[in-house]
Amino acid sequence: MKRTNYAGRTSEAQIGQEVVLKGWVAKRRNLGGLIFIDLRDREGIVQLVFNEEDDRVAFEVANECRNEYIIEVRGLVRARAQANPELATGKIEVEVKEANILARSKTPAFEIKDDVEAAEDLRLKYRYLDLRRPQMMKNMKLRSKVAAIVHSYYDSHDFMDVETPNLTRSTPEGARDFLVPSRLYDGHFYALPQSPQLFKQLLMAAGVDRYYQMARCFRDEDLRGDRQPEFTQIDTEMSFATAEEIQEMTEGLIKQVMKEALGVDVPTPFPRLDWQEAMDRFGSDKPDTRFGMEIHDLSDLVKDSSFKVFSGTVAAGNYVRAIAVPGGADHYSRKDITKKEEYIKRYGAKGLAWVKVTADGYNGPIAKFLTDLADPINERLGAKEGDLILFVADTFHVVCDALGYLREAIAKEMDLIAPNQWNYLWVVNWPMFEYDEGFGKWIAAHHPFTMLKEEDLHYLEEGEDPHQAHAQSYDIILNGNEIGGGSIRIHDPKVQEKVLKALGYSKEEANARFGFLLRGLENGMPPEGGLAFGFDRWVMLLAGADNIRDVIPFPKNSKGIEPMTAAPGMVDPEQLEELHLTVAAEAPADED
RNA sequence: GGUCCAUUGGUCUAGUUUUGGUUAGGACGCAUCCCUGUCACGGAUGAGAUCACGAGUUCGAGUCUCGUAUGGACCGCCA
């Protein structure tokens, strides 16, 4: 029997025709001499009817069927007496003349339904069952659709799809590398790429001019809800382009994806926000602009306050900033606020000060210190009666992190985010360098090959402070999530040398680590730049999923384990020997 | 490296505080039987749980304490 069409696509136009369908038994309803089976394939569900009186042989097959059996059927499409409006194929059904069981199935570990959520660990262990669920199938289809648009878009704009190696060499800085031991060279290792960054730059040196690739990237860092050790970038690079041209090209892609994959029109160009402004107003370098509750600086107002925490903070050169939570006075109890205070301590905040705005002025433990300042504070924050004002007094980064977190957490809790908003924006004008507290040194904020603002080049000269410099880099943000970033690259070897020097590399170190790139620069590198999208994260947001695992067919769990295959696993001693490896720590015995 | 939370039949969960003593309850699923217009089919019957593991407190622990494991969220980390 040759299949005539997908079960889920059986249509009214086929009424009176014979069809052959193959798929999974989603549900069997046995009424005695009459059996209904909902047949499911990747496109959806159609109802099969087996009548004992009409066809005894087919009926016996249906009688034997259980959920998740795979069957093939031949039958006649007919209109239903009573349509089911819940189902896309609800106006028709298939009267089965012949049926065969192609595969039997155990009772599945969990029910294949959208509305019954099994524990995620179980879903991952039986991922092929989980992926049968309509929502997961829909996510995979969306992912495939977006990828197809990406290929078509860049192809039509003269970008070349070029593959770069997955076995490459380890480079310092950035994320921890996944290493692959070399069998041929004792003690030598390949590294899996964190991104094809340097290869795509050298493709520009080759004259490729416009490059794109759906590139697999690997970073050996701890996982998060939106971070996997193995992920896909939409990687692009353009010669002779300015930052604005690259952003415009990117906006074109986003516009097309939104239109063709979701049917949504997004207006372009997207807003551009300076990094400094994003931090000041939203406390975040990836601001969510779907709601207000912006942060305001009160340092000038409270610098002489009798509340020593505030005045002392300002005197030390730090900041007192606040948000006004609309209607927050009733919504949040003292206890709730204490919980929030405990939470923001993880960002280094020492406390969370608050007042409630009432008809009689401020209310709360520090209200008495702020009586005289209530009017100007309210005015600056736009606070009114019934609002809750939250203050954080600390260094710039602590204030931003803490208030940025509170702003987003409260918006979610109080349901302040209207649905169906797609707020894309660019964060531009990033600092070139940032201080790493852990290492006690300056590191590249983006990466060491990022070009500075032209007007900031002088900061690299002798006697100037390179850390004042800003970069020609840009991040693309969607609803408070970083979905991509890029920059104009350095194409002048002299500038690259100075930047590496500012980062603390000696000439010898720089040559040892990036020699191949520096040689490329010396051999004629066009001015160029690019951008990389976090494809998985973008699809997650487009799908409305709240975890990146829901748009990756076989993801790792939060501990980096892939529960279906139980990777990572131990290997045979012979394999280790071939690779010239000995394992120092005795690993625990591998179970099943 | 750190913080917090969770773990009860195949699945999801009630029960855990403020009573420490229950036949550990329910829904879905599963099995058998009845049923010819269901679509969350209906009806009847039934099987299925050493309450993650280990120690402790107690006359008595699903419930309290500690530890371990597993999972989830987060901080650090992720140029």
TrEMBL record:
Top EC class, one word: ligase
Species for this entry: Limosilactobacillus ingluviei DSM 15946
Subcellular location: Cytoplasm
Role of this protein: Catalyzes the attachment of L-aspartate to tRNA(Asp) in a two-step reaction: L-aspartate is first activated by ATP to form Asp-AMP and then transferred to the acceptor end of tRNA(Asp).
Pfam families found in the cross-reference section: GAD, tRNA-synt_2, tRNA_anti-codon
Residue span of region Aspartate: 197-200
EC numbers, comma separated: 6.1.1.12
Keyword Cytoplasm (UniProt): yes
Oligomer and partners: Homodimer.
GO cellular component: cytoplasm
NCBIfam families for this protein: aspS_bact, PRK00476.1
GO biological process: aspartyl-tRNA aminoacylation
Domain Aminoacyl-transfer RNA synthetases class-II family profile: 140-553
Family: Belongs to the class-II aminoacyl-tRNA synthetase family. Type 1 subfamily.
Residues the record lists as binding ATP: R219, D220, E221, Q228, E482, G534, F535, D536, R537
UniProtKB keywords: Aminoacyl-tRNA synthetase, ATP-binding, Cytoplasm, Ligase, Nucleotide-binding, Protein biosynthesis
Catalysed reactions, as listed in the record: tRNA(Asp) + L-aspartate + ATP = L-aspartyl-tRNA(Asp) + AMP + diphosphate
Protein name: Aspartate--tRNA ligase
Matching InterPro entries: Aa-tRNA-synt_II, aa-tRNA-synth_II, aa-tRNA-synth_II/BPL/LPL, Asp-tRNA-ligase_1, Asp-tRNA-ligase_1_N, Asp/Asn-tRNA-synth_IIb, AspRS_core, GAD-like_sf
GO terms for MF: aspartate-tRNA ligase activity; ATP binding; catalytic activity, acting on a protein; nucleic acid binding; transferase activity
CDD domains on file: AspRS_core, EcAspRS_like_N
PANTHER family the UniProt entry points to: ASPARTATE--TRNA LIGASE, MITOCHONDRIAL, ASPARTYL/LYSYL-TRNA SYNTHETASE
Binding positions (L-aspartate): E173, R219, H446, R489
Keyword Glycoprotein: no
